[in-house]
Design goal:
By secondary structure, the chain is an alpha/beta fold. Helix content is about 45%, strand content about 15%. α1 packs across α5, α5 crosses α13 and α6 (about 165-175) runs parallel beside α7 (about 195-205).
């Protein structure tokens, strides 16, 4: 399968076969890395990493993956680029496209990464936008396949605020690959209707399903995967904390919820997770609201069913697959 020259902006742009190909390639690259077999097939090439929102996993994954493929990286943090400030996105794209073989963008609106892709002339990869997080999906689904086998027909339940990039992206990939996707949240936190209709059309082709549910106990019965994300995203005002904690605490992933799903269920979280008070924000929220954990309990996070660190490692292997597939003639 030839994906050379393709952008990686949202999984809506990819077929079931193409997504499975990327997962297979990631598994192969992971195996080669474990065996110490080099894959530096892109020696002499360079990629730009634009981070308007900082990240531990995404930055490290792109840098290590690029290094393993033989490439150099240039990291542009929020203060290291004039994108959208002194220089338009269009002009930035045309400049970077002359210097680099690929561009990663992690930041705000999807329209920014789309515009970079329109003008760069080289592959552009979405490291996260407000609307979508496609690289995280590949990591999650490689992890699911490693622990639960065949993907088609599995049930994935997303708990919490289902309006943004993580729930949107889970709904897309589940509908593309024939899984049963359930978003469990208060009604006002459901995904938008337009994306829902798109995914329902994908699901008709793949044999998957899309369900929205407000009852956690009902939602997780027989689930193969239970996942969640932080209740307040980067860039949102502090005032929303109280509302989210009030609305979403009934949707916290705890031991009872996992037991109701069954022993077969694994837990995933893209990280960072507020499962204790060992972070600055976690400690602050604990003092303000008298809580010790938010979207997931520490008991679940540290349990055998939790595969969050396998998931975090797989960010690097799947990102390597995306870069290799879109930059190489063959690998």
């Amino acid at each position: 399968m030839n994906l050379k020259g393709r952008h990686f902006l949202t999984l809506k742009d990819f077929t079931e076969e193409e997504i499975l190909y990327l997962l297979d390639l990631a598994a192969d690259l992971k195996d080669r890395k474990k065996k110490g077999i080099p894959v530096d097939v892109l020696r002499g090439k360079n990629v730009a990493l634009i981070f308007e929102k900082t990240s531990t996993r995404t930055r490290c994954s792109f840098e290590v993956a690029a290094h393993d493929l033989g490439m150099g990286t240039t990291y542009l943090d929020p203060s290291g680029s004039q994108i959208g400030k002194k220089e338009s996105i269009e002009d930035t794209a045309r400049v970077l496209g002359r210097m680099f073989e690929g561009i990663e963008y992690r930041g705000y609106g999807q329209e920014i990464v789309n515009e970079l892709a329109e003008y760069a002339g080289v592959p552009v990869w979405n490291g996260l936008t407000n609307e979508y997080h496609p690289t995280q999906m590949l990591a999650d689904f490689l992890t699911i396949r490693e622990h639960r086998g065949e993907l088609k027909g599995k049930k994935l339940v997303y708990m919490g605020d289902a309006r943004y990039n993580m729930a949107n992206s889970y709904m897309i990939i589940c509908s593309k690959l024939g899984l049963d996707f359930v978003a469990c949240a208060p009604k006002k936190y459901f995904p938008n209707e337009e994306l829902k209709k798109e995914c329902e059309a994908f699901a008709k082709v793949s044999g998957g399903s899309i369900t929205f549910c407000e009852n956690p106990e009902e939602a997780v019965k027989g689930a193969d995967v239970i996942c969640t994300d932080v209740w307040v995203s980067m860039g949102e005002p502090d005032e929303v904390w109280e509302e989210r904690i009030r609305d979403l605490t009934p949707y916290r992933v705890d031991k009872k919820l996992m037991e109701n799903a069954g022993k077969q269920a694994i837990f995933l979280h893209c990280l960072p997770a507020f499962h204790d008070l060992k972070t600055k924000i976690g400690k602050e929220m604990g003092e303000r609201f008298g809580i010790t954990e938010m979207e997931v309990t520490d008991e679940v996070f540290e349990s055998e069913q939790s595969k969050v660190f396998d998931e975090a490692e797989n960010r690097m292997h799947t990102i390597k697959a995306v870069m290799a597939a879109t930059l190489c003639d063959e690998i």
